[in-house]
Amino acid sequence: MQSLRSHVTRTACQAMRELFRTMQSTHRPEFDEVVFALLIRTADMNRFIRQDSNEALDSMVMYIPLYHSVRVLVDKGASHKNPLVRTATARLLTCIVMISGSESILDATANKDTRRQVLLTSAKLLGDGNLETRVFAKKLVRFLMEHKNFESAFYNVVDEDTIKKIEKTLNSLRSQLKKVTVHSTGNQREVPAY
Known about the structure:
InterPro entries: ARM-like, ARM-type_fold, CLASP_N_dom. The protein is mainly alpha-helical and 194 residues long. The protein contains ten helices and two strands; from the N terminus they run H-H-H-H-H-H-H-H-H-H-E-E. 70% of the residues lie in helices and 5% in strands. Helix 4 (66-76) packs antiparallel against helix 5 (83-100), helix 7 crosses helix 8 (131-145) and helix 8 (131-145) crosses helix 10 (160-177).
């Protein structure tokens, strides 16, 4: 995947997509290295390589167990210097949580390390400098906010300084979750805001 020839890189990304789908192997450190290489390729200059690497990572999200995917994305992508890599990480975390459901993260029976990683990373990405990263982080947090245990879990895990930095965003997300009155042709009806 680190070849300078674009067709070799694209073929490697496509092969990884199929390996995630068929093998579902998460042996360390090979799995971590492959995912990190794919994350780096999401910021490539060639749009076809970006597309293939994103498709391979989407395949990882679909077929690899939740805790392995979250662990490697949080370790490798959330603190990367490139904003495109952080955006891809935020998008993938959002997809993971939406596919598996907020219960798989926030229930009492859920993996505590995975819960901590998702909540800390979502708080960090809410304060990111890149707009697209923040948009995906907002989707993630808004989806998690629908769960009854979100508030207690979030405030137990995230430190006060980070919460102060993102308090306005959290308040706006809370207000979006409340029902909105929609005025249409003089009739009022309540619909959830999404």
